[in-house]
Design a protein that fits this description.
The structure holds two protein chains of two kinds. Chain A is mainly alpha-helical. Chain A folds into two domains: about 90 residues, no CATH class; about 160 residues, Orthogonal Bundle (MetI-like fold). Chain A is built from 15 helices and two strands. Chain A has a two-stranded parallel ribbon. In chain A, helix 10 packs across helix 12. Chain B has one domain: P-loop containing nucleotide triphosphate hydrolases (Rossmann fold), CATH 3.40.50.300. The chains are: A mainly alpha, B alpha/beta. At the A-B interface, helix 11 and helix 12 of A face helix 2, strand 6, helix 3 and helix 5 of B. Chain B: One of its GO terms (molecular function) is ABC-type amino acid transporter activity. Chain B: This is Amino acid ABC transporter ATP-binding protein, PAAT family. Chain B: Belongs to the ABC transporter superfamily.
């Protein structure tokens, strides 16, 4: 009937659990084994072929003639890399885009640690962007002017991405808030803008910006191709960011807003200190995808004749002095994009892990 | 201190508060009880304007509660509130949770706000947890933080909306002990709770609500030993099991 414990049950280490073999799902069973075998056989045949193309018969030095009837023409990329990276920017002034890439790259790296997320860093970005535009455009401080139509390659990719994010992010947040507003006018306007921007392919939007805008702008007002493309990018980015942020906002419990208001906090404090930090944290994973898409989308400017990384690569293939090593060129450009995008994705994952603020225990 | 006259509130067609009138004196300790859905929470949420009343008048001192942002902000700075689900800010540390409003609303410098926050965390006996995040604390510790957060605004009135209903039985006492200590310090308290022991010990007046109306009010002694209204008697008889 009655039971009273006399000695505590000892705490013991967990018994060994059977490990799930990592390979089981690809080697067990007939169909799985067959599929695996086919893929492995294919790889065994493909790898030597690839190596012979890329390494054994690859041409690393020399000119166009050395590349004929050989394997991979890496020499072409060595010769054309400055053009791919900096486009048709005047060669004598090439130090300027190089400096811009270094400035923007350094500002990006500086901004990564959370301890650097301060007003000063924001100011630093302002300086970096003004300096970059000044260096690229020239016309002041004794720098010779270079029209935006001659800008190209990596600086264009970086500037487009940075502007898309720096302007698209605040605009996206405003759109997300407006779409959730009690005021019908705000709600309808934001919804219309978001839905139109999302429903239109970015390529179409770029064509509209580049071809239609001159017709729509009042006489005397002109905007160059780069600015028009930039506007299209910012609008499109903000629509996607708005929807992701809206998802995050929906994940913040209503009690947060209530308790913040009950403390007497003003509307902007409730929003900036309580609601948005939580919403963005919740939306970090989909936000990363959106940002990576925005980075890659910058390559679409080739349809309106701007020389970003990808279009500069394509143009470099037109040189009659060389054979046309498409595969090598695209492979290298793909690698540059991969490094940027994968780097960003890893960084975002790191943020996700370290900024949970106790929601996930450390 | 609090004056409510003829207050009515509807959720759609549902009549949630029916002609509620109530006056609370400075320093008075009120416990509001009654079955779920009787309008207790709605009543105290109308006091700091988290719910908008549809008719009648609510005044906090000289300020009339009305849907005007500035007026509401001013009133809320004077009226603290503690929620059933704590509603701490999960992305801020315990200390930051308590220091935020004094900085942003009362304009204290960070140092002063944090010193005040530490002092209050000491008072709710949780100072050693100041640098943790809410999710790392037990429910009882979180609710004590929420009390410290409300007190950091140095309010004249504090509203409790079922502060122990979401707690494990073992943690109810630690929160009630803090509330009892607070009750001896002269702050005006309105507390919605099912803790009848607390009501009996602390309240100056008990308000019993049912179906959006105040059914009976009285001292704890009268309320528990000589309930007058039939509905009150039915409620009390079901509590003693």
């Amino acid at each position: 009937m009655r039971y009273v414990r006399t000695a505590p049950e000892p705490v013991r280490p967990a018994p060994p659990r059977p490990k799930r073999p990592a390979l089981r799902s690809i080697v067990s069973g007939g169909a799985n084994l067959l599929t695996t075998a086919i893929i492995v056989l294919f790889a065994i045949r493909a790898v030597p072929h690839l190596l012979s193309w890329a390494v054994t018969h690859g041409v690393w030095n020399g000119d166009g003639d050395a590349c004929r009837d050989a394997g991979a023409c890496w020499a072409f990329l060595r010769a054309k890399m400055p053009f791919i990276l900096f486009g048709i920017y005047p060669e004598a002034e090439r130090w300027r885009p190089i400096l811009v890439v270094l400035i923007l790259g350094a500002a990006t790296l500086w901004s990564l640690p959370r301890a650097h997320w301060t007003r000063a860093t924001l100011g630093l970005w302002g300086v970096a962007i003004v300096a970059s535009l000044l260096l690229m455009a020239g016309g002041r401080l004794g720098l010779s002017p270079v029209p935006t139509s001659a800008w190209g390659g990596l600086p264009i990719t970086m500037l487009l991405t940075i502007f898309s994010l720096a302007l698209g992010f605040p605009l996206g947040i405003v759109l997300a808030l407006a779409r959730r507003s009690d005021m019908p006018v705000y709600r309808w306007t934001a919804t219309a803008l978001i839905e139109v921007m999302r429903a239109m392919p970015l390529v179409t939007l770029l064509f509209v910006a580049s071809v239609m805008a001159p017709l729509l702008l009042p006489a005397g007002v002109t905007a160059d191709n780069l600015t028009r493309a930039l506007v299209a990018f910012v609008l499109s980015s903000s629509a996607y960011i708005a929807e992701v942020v809206r998802g995050g906002l929906q994940g913040v419990p209503p009690g947060q807003q209530e308790s913040a208001r009950a403390l007497g906090l003003g509307r902007s404090t409730v929003l900036l200190s309580i609601i948005l930090p939580q919403a963005i944290r919740k939306a970090l994973a989909p936000l990363t995808s959106t940002v990576v898409v925005i980075i890659k989308n910058s390559s679409l400017v080739l349809v309106v004749g701007l020389f970003d990384l990808l279009s500069a690569g394509r143009v470099s293939l037109n040189d009659p002095a060389w054979p046309t090593p498409y595969a090598e060129t695209y492979l290298v450009i793909a690698l540059i994009y991969f490094v940027i995008c994968y780097g960003f994705a890893r960084y975002a994952l790191h943020l996700e892990r370290t900024t949970q603020g106790g929601e996930r225990r450390p | 201190m609090i004056h409510m006259a003829g207050v009515g509130k509807w959720y759609g067609d549902y009549h949630a508060l029916r002609n509620v009138s109530l006056d609370v004196a400075r320093g008075e300790r009120i416990v509001i009880c009654g079955p779920s859905g009787s309008g207790k929470s709605t009543l105290i949420r109308c006091i700091n304007g988290l719910e908008t009343h549809d008719e009648g008048v609510i005044r906090i001192g000289e300020d009339e509660v009305r849907p005007d942002r500035r007026v509401l902000q001013r009133i809320r700075a004077r009226v603290g509130m503690v929620f059933q689900d704590f509603n701490l800010f999960p992305h801020l540390t315990i200390l930051e949770n308590c220091a935020l409003a004094p900085m942003k609303v009362r304009g204290l410098a960070r140092d002063a706000a944090e010193a005040l926050a530490r002092e209050l965390l000491e008072r709710v006996r949780i100072a050693d947890q100041a640098d943790k995040y809410p999710a790392q604390l037990s429910g009882g510790q979180q609710q004590r933080t929420a009390i410290a957060r409300a007190l950091a605004m140095q309010p004249e009135i504090i509203l409790f909306d079922e502060p122990t209903s979401a707690l494990d039985a073992e943690m109810v006492k630690e929160v009630l002990d803090i509330m009892k200590a607070l009750a001896t310090e002269g702050i005006t308290m309105l507390c919605v709770t099912h803790e009848m022991g607390f009501a009996r010990e602390v309240a100056d007046r008990i308000i019993f609500m049912d179906a959006g109306q105040i059914v009976e009010t009285g001292s704890p002694h009268d309320f528990f030993t000589a309930p007058c209204h039939e509905r009150t008697r039915a409620f009390l008889s079901r509590l003693l099991y």
